[in-house]
Amino acid sequence: MKIKAPNSYRKKARKGFRGYPAATVAFYDPDDQFASKVSVGILLQEDAGLLELRRWFAEKLDVRTDPAITKGIWDFMESHGVKTVVVTDRIIGCPHEEVIDYPEGKVCPKCPFWAHRDRWAGEPIQ
Q1: Where are the domains of the chain?
Q2: What's the whole-model pTM score?
């Protein structure tokens, strides 16, 4: 079985909006260097909730370059007939989940890097 190149879903993202279903791809880690988690959500139409959300985790290889994870993401998107892909251009936050891993409204005690940082800009909040 051939594994798609690590940039396969990124190539689809560069094509811009091509209709629904759409997939969102976001990367997470305790800091902004090594992505240990990727979340992929499937949307069937604008303003609709997620149809399905799937997460992949890695310890040794960055999820952005892990061929097995890339194949899993590609297969997941293909199984939903995804036409549009939106991918974050950076790691956007901690891999732990509010309410599940730490109390709502608090900062993650395991990821101080993100405690006072704008996760979209990657810059400290003053």
Answers
A1: 8-97
A2: 0.87
